[in-house]
Amino acid sequence: MRSFLLGLLVLISASSFAQQVAKSMTSSAGLFVGFYDFRPPGYVASNTTKKYPLIIFLHGIGERGNGTTDLPNVCANGIPRNIKWGSTMTYTVNGVTESFLVLSPQLDTKYGGWVNGYVDAMLEYAKANLNYDPDRVYLTGLSAGGGGTWDYVSNKAGNAGIFAAIAPVCGSSYTAYGMCYIAQAHLPVWAFHAVDDGTVPVSMTQNALALINKCSPAPNPAPKVTYYAAGLGGHGIWYMSYDETHTYANPNLYEWFLSKRRSTNGNGVNQAPVVQLTNDISLVLPTNSTTLDASKSYDFDGTVASYSWTQVSGPSTAAIASATSATTKVSNMVEGTYVFQVKITDDKGASSTGQLKVLVQTTYGADLAPICKAGDDFTSANSTVYLSGAGSYDPDGKIATYQWYQIAGPATATIIDGTTPFPTISKLVTGNYKFRLVVTDNLGKPADDTVAVSISTGSVVLVPPVVKITGTTTITLPTNTTTLDGSSSISSNANGTISSYQWSEVSGPNTATFGTATAKATTVNGLVAGTYSFQLKVTDNLGSTGTTAVSVTVKASTGSNKAPIANAGADFTTQYKDYAYLSGGASYDPDGSIATWAWTQISGPNTTKIVAGNSMFPTINNMVAGTYTFRLTVTDNLGATAYDDVNVSLGSTGKPPVANAGNDFSTSNNYAYLSGGASYDPDGSITGWAWSQVSGPNTASILSGNSMFPTVQSLVAGTYTFRVKVTDNSGQSATDDVVLTVTAKTATTALAGTVNTQALGVDVNAGSTKVNDLAKEPSIYPNPATNQITVTFTNDFVGNYKFLVYDVKGKIVTQYNYSKQAGQVQQKLDISKLPAGMYYLETIYEGNQKAVSKKFVKL
């Protein structure tokens, strides 16, 4: 008893330690973040020499909440769901077993999508609290979280270099202009999407990957993508993406993560950081101080670790206040020209330098011309390119205007935003172009520069159209209609024109109707109080598509509050084994907004567990065959409530189980082992076993008669018939009989032991000692066990064999494959991932020869 209690305490301690712990913090940027902190079994905070890989997981839009009482919503899907149901996040790659740390923040409901501050906060928390490996940090998310994953690494130069790999699943957004940051950082990408996703179209992932693949130089490694066929789950395919087995991918996502490490630029060499400085500075005395700023510097494959400011030339009077800071004040300057240099060093020791000038004058002299920089010449294979005049500046004033012109090349080009530093050039065809930038300073003095763009003879990559929506987006009842206009949308491809428009409602009350859903401008009718999201999809004559969405807010008129409308969805029947998804997405409030959701079970089997029951989209787990009624209660922003019920039928196809009591056999012992291990259910699972004696001497007794592998004792010479009855999860049953012949012991038959030799497919009378050796029971030690058992047996068999482990319901839960030489075998088996309970171990030798099954207990 003492050792059992000790083992139980160890198990409880390990299980408790490996839970997701609710945490909260306010980041250095002032953002409150509630999140789950998962640390695997064996993690010791004081052991700072052991570093763990870290995953940051971003959930979908339905799991948003306040970061405190709503935090359990985060566990509805993906990695937090796996951990909640027992995953230790432990995997083996190339013979090395490692476990992940996982941080899962919750997005506040005031945000419609992930903002970068949440990932920043998790990185800040990890640096202060976790023993993690900064070269093995991974970012992943589903739906809105997939979009948040794309957005974080493409939003700002340097963000992509933080991670060893990313995995956006059904990503709902990305930052187009920054996708080449991913290629420049050599960031491994594995994207996932279903081709029939009706919520986030698969084109979102396709377009994101196209933008990465067209970068110059090309991405190394190239991004990886898995597209799921229609009918596998649509938008909800993330259960396959985040699966821990090899059912859907080998290696799985976590094993793939462990094969990736940061700081690769294609050949494993650390990249130097990039210096970003402000433009040169002009001062007029008596002003004799200014601020030098290198804070926008970054490192593609790491972080900037240190700064060092020095004066290179100029009068020796200048005083640098903070020479080791990203920004520093410089004072005590006199008339003259100063040159200051900053040296930045990354976290792996690589460094870069940059310089800027400070001109100090006694009075303003003649106006100096601005410096115009149109960027370096370049070559592209795309029909749309982006130019930059951001390097332009004025040494004694500021740039007042920008103007871009085409001065050479095919006449197809269109300049978009030509009066800004960052124009877009679209509709390019194969050929050589020149574009001129003219800048004018605040005193009217101009300067110009030219950039040459060569469009290669290779195939031009089509890019999505630019989609724009105009119209009234806020109205107050009784006005219940508005007009949305997409006529400003344009094709980004050469010789491209918009050929079709398609309007649709993405979210909000389901009352809206379109005047003409395929027109460039359409009226939207039937609006009620609430917030709508309407999407416009446009297609150009070359087949390229683009989408954008606009929010329309309908304010309630003055008057009494109207109750919300609850809609729990249509009744349905599912064949899924143990879970179902519910949706309250069609609920709405006619004069306000829905503030809370609450799902409860009204009737049906009491086995279920409602996950994320205070969200719009809950998951029902632990279902068995039967009919259930679930109720959705919604409360609006003024406290009015309403409810609606949905009936869910979970059934089988009506097929009964198949019982198999094993082949008839004989023995000379006074006991024998029976096996129903070959029984199965074609459309469910076997839930009950019942063995009974049908005929034969009445001396026999059955031990463990309600298990898959019973023992029959007190046998005497004669012929017995035993029957197994199996019952499946829908209540159907089947039976099968096995005939056991007991003979008096002889020298020949004594070797047969207790094994059903007919089931082995061998002849006892042949007297083969090798066959009889196979029939000898293996020993299991320790038993009971917590993490590992050792199986010992001796025989002359040479070849391949395997161990099968069954649970008490007869389901195979794991197997181990080995090969052996003649003689004794001592094989250690890892059972740490098995739930506590009783199991049966069966040995199968090549040629389908089976040894006696053995029981063991996992604590």
From TrEMBL:
Q: Which UniProt keywords apply?
A: Signal
User: Does the keyword field hold Signal?
Assistant: yes
Q: Which InterPro entries match?
A: KIAA0319-like (IPR029865), PKD/Chitinase_dom (IPR022409), PKD_dom (IPR000601), Secre_tail (IPR026444)
Question: Listed GO cellular component terms?
Answer: cytoplasmic vesicle; membrane
Q: Quote any Pfam family the record assigns.
A: K319L-like_PKD
Annotated ranges, domain PKD: 471-561
From the UniProt annotation, give the residues forming the signal peptide.
1-18
Name of the protein described by the UniProt record: T9SS type A sorting domain-containing protein
| Organism for this UniProt entry | Pinibacter aurantiacus
